[in-house]
Amino acid sequence: MTPKFASQRSLTKGFRYLFPVIIMALCIFALSQHDNLPSAAELWTLISGIKITQWLGAVAGTALSFWALGKYDSVAHRHLRTGLDGALAQRAGMVSIAFSQTIGFGIFTGAFARWRVIPQLSPLQAAQMTGFVGVTFLTALAAICGIALLGTAHSLHNLLLGGAISLIALTASVVCFMFPTWKIGKFTLRLPSLRALFALGAWTLVDIASAGCALWLLLPEGHGIALTDLLPAYFLALGLAIISSAPGGAGPLEIALIALLPAADPATLVAGLLAFRMVYYAVPAILSGVFLLNPTLLSRGLKNESDDADYLGNDRRPAMSLPFERPQAETAVILQNGGNVLALGLNQLAILDSPQISVAFFDPTSGTSPETTKAFARYASQRNTAPCFYKCSARAATAVRSQGWRVLRIAADAIVNPQTFSESGSRYRQLRRKLRHTEKANLEIEAAWGQLPYDEMAVVDQKWIQQHGKALGTTMGRFEPGYVGLQAAFLARKNGRLIGFVTFHRCSNEWALDLVRILPDTPDGTGHALIRAAIEHAREAGIERMSLSAVPDHTYAHKLDGGLKRFKTCFNPTWEPRYIATPSWGQMALALAEMTRLVHRPAPLTSVPHIAGKKPAPQSSQNLHIDDEKNEFALERTA
Fold this sequence. Notes:
Blueprint: H1 3-32, H2 40-48, H3 52-80, H4 87-103, H5 106-117, H6 123-152, H7 156-178, E1 181-184, E2 187-190, H8 194-217, H9 227-244, H10 252-260, H11 266-293, H12 308-312, E3 315-317, E4 340-344, E5 347-353, E6 357-361, H13 369-381, E7 386-392, H14 394-401, E8 406-416, H15 429-440, E9 444-449, H16 454-468, H17 481-484, E10 488-494, E11 497-506, E12 511-518, H18 526-540, E13 546-552, H19 557-560, H20 564-569, E14 574-582, H21 585-600, H22 621-630, H23 634-637
Parallel strand pairs: 6-7, 12-13
Antiparallel strand pairs: 1-2, 3-4, 4-5, 5-6, 7-14, 8-13, 8-14, 9-10, 10-11, 11-12
């Protein structure tokens, strides 16, 4: 670096530090030139007239405001995954904001204060916390200002401005939902979840409304300013004061309020603001200084608030640790959608953490639903996401409903018992007709697992996608060699050419249909023949339960079916209801929207690694089942 360049950089840096002070000085000078400002004696008289009840009310408003700011910091800790979102973090947030809002230069003073009072926080994390809090607070404040302008607009200009701000805020929320992560060079920017945005907005509103009420209470008697007029003006003035970075917002806050409340007496406003600064700025700043000098004081009096959910703990394990002894085979879908096994004590869930929700697929893989509900909700809360049980059974749905959760029926699972399955009777007439078509076409059906014709299957998959559009995902499997290599596959050939295949997840007592890929020019009934062959092999393997997977079962199901239910009805299955469950209807709406997004815009496939090594040797259905009892991944770990 040349001396000239270093000198210019030092000047730029110095000006950046001096700029807020210059802004404050200019604003105070402009304020001093106002004609109607009171003298020092008049100001003292006005402040002396404030009643003790007004002071006490302002103190209560200040306490509520800072309590909300502490809660705000807790949400920020969860977003940044610091693991420090408890009572200490909330107190640290209150201290850092009390210090930084009075001293000014918020990004630096706030980061220093957080780092000083939370030993576990690194300087980088403290800076990230401060930056996140600053940006999101201003964004939330802007949105609240827009809504306030809409609700209190006295002119077309204010109405249009409020509408524009509100529209931008709504658009930003949609962007956070649709595009939750952004790749910027080597860095990945993760936007807040909608649950986090709602919480941040709510705590911002509590904070600024409480502070605005404290200011209103401290206005001298006879001020004649309605609270509904003061609050919108205070919100806008506060935003300008924060942007200026002036110490305590001194100058910009006063000038903005006088300009935004032209009918108010400037002397009354200035007296009220001076009293407000004593309560809302000076006292908290002094207290924060004490805690910064002795950070250990901050943790005094904190009680251990552990409950059953804390004692259970939570341990996220790789998807490959999914137990073979589990109620539903289909939970193996987490092997490719980025899911994990979440252990809550002795209970285990097959979960997927998305930007908006933490979803547990089906019933617990071990344990019971009542024991997991509270711990799972705590786990989701720590990520700023909504907890959700997806496609759980009626029994699990009843259990979580008894604990206050909201439950909605969304699907019906087609269940067949291979041991009792028969093609005789009028109910199987359509199936017999379809199978006769494949017999006349000389279709060849073969069972395969472990060592599959992956190249041929990939061609069929690509042609199927060309016909049907992009493959859906997240709750449904997509073709990937390592993934289908774990499954039982059934192939359909005509004249030696692969024209279709189906695959099944497997567990100790169930097979579950996953991929169905059939070319458009195949003989009628090819899919039926593949399923029929799978049922026969499951019978030989001693399997007593086979899921043909679920179909939509709700008000709009008829628009989404596309003949899927009619196809499965040919096998005369037992239809078992499946449910979605969340703690509230608001979280239910969020979960349904997020699941729709995840299905139609799935994340990139997570490759299952076993295929990178040797491919397992082919085995018959009988010894496949025997090996499965010994080790659920025996085929993948041994050659």
